[in-house]
Amino acid sequence: MTPWSRPVLSRPEWATALGVFALIGILVPLLHVMLPEGHALRPSTYAVTLVGKILCFATVAVAMDLIWGFAGILSLGHGLFFALGGYAWGMYLMRQIGRDGSYGAELPDFMVFLDWKQLPWYWQGSDQWWWAMLMVLLVPGLLALVFGWFAFRSRIKGVYLSIVTQALTYAAMLLFFRNETGFGGNNGFTDFKRIFGVSITSPGTRAALLAASALCLLLAFLLCRYLVRSKFGRVLEAIRDAEARVMFLGYDPLPYKLSAWVISALLCAIAGALYVPQVGIINPGEMSPANSIEIAVWVAVGGRGTLIGPIVGAFLVNLSKSWFTQAFPQLWLFFLGLLFVIVTLALPRGVVGLVMSWRERRRGAGGQT
Fold it and tell me: Of 97, 199, 210, 314, which residue is 20 to 30 A from 235 by alpha carbon distance?
């Protein structure tokens, strides 16, 4: 039984959590836009970008928790869906450069540099924002649907499924590294100028992207919370704990696992689309297996099967990463591995699970007195 069988947060704690969310999603963007540069209370451009990026990562962590924490499906390839969403939106951003870029051509700069004469067929329509948004959902969603159908229908599960997802991500990364695929090769897409016709580096745009990332995280959390508290979520938990018994009772696990898998992939893709304009780059490195493993670490550190825990884990790990990679850049991966081992051995329920256990012991002690 997962921690969602009882409230993870009390009402005062929910009020505190909503207050923190409002501070991040509303107050930070407003201060960044309204206060002049150099003001003591004005968040820096770096801070706004960092917070927006972590909000996108937190959305991915919630998506991972939906399939891992509640369906028992450990994916080590969710970075692929995140990157595909980023590439789909990055194509639109690159077309905005091409119209008035340094080469003065309709083609993206890197295509002109490589002496391409015309756009590939799969770039058609990418200069329209609504088409790009459609592709953000359609491409990762179809890939997740096809892969999930074959994988779950073949009853691949456990470590075997994890390995297959990692292999899929690695194969896609190698494909996107090739210049002839038309996605910028190892450099990917960068040097974005405009989004929806406005400067992508203006304070207003950065603030709007941060607010959109916060709203995306909130909606993703509420959607997953609704799903796991419904009959759909109870069946997912049953499949995770005893799939054979669920089949014996007359339920087909395939549609439940496949639905959760596709929803999770779509949330990752949307987060990737919001991530790219904030960091200003997308390249095949986002598909590396290490990035997908990191997503699992965020969920494990925060608390698998809690939904709120992955958000906490994403912030804790990425804030630590931001500091560690500056202070001790060569030691970050060792720290990350050590953190995962410690959490697995000492905190199997993560940080949120530790807080819940402490709260239960406190209540028990209060009841005895």
Answer: 314
- Residues 330, 99: contact at Cβ < 8 Å? no
By C-alpha distance, which of 238, 237, 233, 258 is closest to 249?
Answer: 238
Which residue in 61, 81, 65, 76 sits closest to 314, CA to CA?
61
How far is the C-alpha of 281 from the C-alpha of 275, rounded, in Å?
9
Whether 214 contacts 25, CB under 8 Å: yes
In angstroms, rounded to a whole number, what is the distance separating the alpha carbons of residues 142 and 259? Answer: 12
What are the residue ranges spanned by the domains of the chain? 3-368
The pLDDT assigned to 143 comes to 97
What is the Cα 88 distance to its own chain's centre?
15
* Tokens 């391409």 sit on residue: 116
What is the token pair recorded at 114? 């490589």
Residues 6+ apart with CB under 8 A from 248: none
Helix (H) or strand (E) holding 82: helix 78-100
Q: Tell me the percentage of the chain whose pLDDT exceeds 70.
A: 91
Q: What's the pLDDT band for 6 if we cut at 50, 70, 90?
A: very low
Is residue 190 classed as helix, strand or coil in its secondary structure? strand
**For the whole model, what pTM was predicted?**
0.90
